[in-house]
Task: inverse folding
């Protein structure tokens, strides 16, 4: 009888891409349409030079866009998105047809001091 040997191949973490990859030291937030990123535990962060960071832990929360406040967006990586009105404008550019009653995922990650962009 033939013996089968299974090789475990690790799946690389996904890359979290950005239309405006500007990050500040410490906690950064990125708001994504829908629930695709909700519960993803680890990702590489797309860098402005086209590369990607080492894998970093993510935290996420699922919310209705209309429930977001300035306080929820204080750590938003893009300064133009730190208010609901500013974020809505940007999301409507990124996701044509985006509506304020949609579900969004707030993705949080920590950016090291040596890698600020």
Result:
């Amino acid at each position: 009888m033939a013996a089968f040997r299974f090789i475990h191949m690790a799946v690389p973490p996904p890359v979290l891409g950005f239309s405006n990859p500007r990050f500040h030291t410490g906690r950064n937030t990125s708001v994504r349409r829908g629930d695709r990123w909700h519960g993803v535990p680890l990702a590489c962060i797309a860098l402005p030079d086209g590369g990607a960071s080492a894998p970093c832990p993510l935290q996420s929360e699922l919310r209705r866009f209309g429930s977001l406040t300035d306080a929820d967006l204080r750590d938003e990586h893009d300064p133009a998105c730190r208010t609901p009105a500013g974020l809505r404008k940007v999301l409507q550019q990124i996701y044509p047809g985006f509506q304020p009653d949609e579900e969004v995922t707030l993705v949080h990650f920590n950016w090291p001091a040596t890698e600020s962009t």
Notes: Helices lie at 84-94. The mean pLDDT is 92. Residues 10 and 97 are 37 Å apart (CA to CA).
